[in-house]
Design goal:
Radius of gyration: 13 Å
Mean pLDDT: 94
Helix content: 40-55%
Low-confidence stretches: none
Distance between the termini: 37 Å
Order of helices and strands: HEEHH
Structural class: mainly alpha
Strand content: 5-15%
Number of domains: 1
Shape: elongated
Length: about 80
């Protein structure tokens, strides 16, 4: 079923968070740009990204803070 919001759907929170991190890695968003968290949709029950969250997703924040995000992005540049 397609969501009436038109957003990409993820069946679990873990899958949505992993995809959120992948998007940040592949698109080289600045930490305060792009989607910031995931939420469970009231319409379809699936998970979506949001850029309007008052806080950044905890897993994403840890990767940024630890420098892991930047290391992965730099490694991709060498491929």
């Amino acid at each position: 079923m397609n969501c009436p919001t038109g957003k990409n759907q993820y069946s679990t929170k873990l899958l949505a968070e992993t995809s959120l991190i992948d998007v940040h890695i592949h698109r080289n968003f600045q930490p305060d740009q792009g989607p910031q968290d995931v939420y469970e949709c009231e319409f379809c029950g699936e998970w979506h990204f949001t850029s309007k969250s008052p806080k950044r997703n905890e897993r994403l924040q840890k990767m940024i803070d630890s420098g892991e995000m930047r290391r992965i992005q730099q490694a991709r540049e060498w491929e």
